[in-house]
Amino acid sequence: MKLILLLLCTILEVPLAMTVHIQFMAVELRSISTPAAMESAPGLGRMKCAELCSVRPACFGFSWLQGLCRLFDWLAFSSTDGWQFSESCDVYARIDDSQPPTQLKLESCSQSSTYGSNVCGRAIDGNRNQKYGAGSCAHTGIKPFEWWEGQLAAPSLVSYVTIYNRQDCCAERLNKFSLQVDGVECNRVSLTVPFSVANFSCNAFGSRV
């Protein structure tokens, strides 16, 4: 499943002639699980559901089925135990534009195979030298369907992934790949020109990237 980024904006009129814009982003489309609801409201569309969540201080987001809006708080969203089985629904979470993005840290990693001594940990050791000979690059084997995976400390909303590509040669090997979170594709990359350093959008929730 490829996730599609959708933004829902709602405007609140508050005292002193101020206007507050609150945005919600789709983090799971056609999800078969949803955060446990703290409140439900029947007969609402996505925009009305967003408006309802925006006026509830504890509301972090909502899941939407045709004719049913379910609000949830941050605790239910951030905990894997807080997600419950559901009919296919879309899950939205607030975007806080007032806070800078948090850089997520990968705690550990694994890869499908290892070429030489180029273990997966070299991709997340902080060494950004992009030359293979510097011993700073992770490298799998060269068979089809190789993969690399990093583990976050906790389930999180992954907005994008920054990749530092090899630059001494062979940068085109990453022209095409599938970016996934918890095994679900959030971006299918297909480039015609190799890149050096690039951000690839994802906007998915999970702990394995």
UniProtKB/TrEMBL annotation:
Protein name per the record: F5/8 type C domain-containing protein
Coiled coil segments of this chain: none
Keywords (A to Z) from UniProt: Signal
Pfam families: F5_F8_type_C_2
Keyword presence, Ubl conjugation: no
Keyword match Signal: yes
Signal peptide residue numbers: 1-19
Natural source organism: Macrostomum lignano
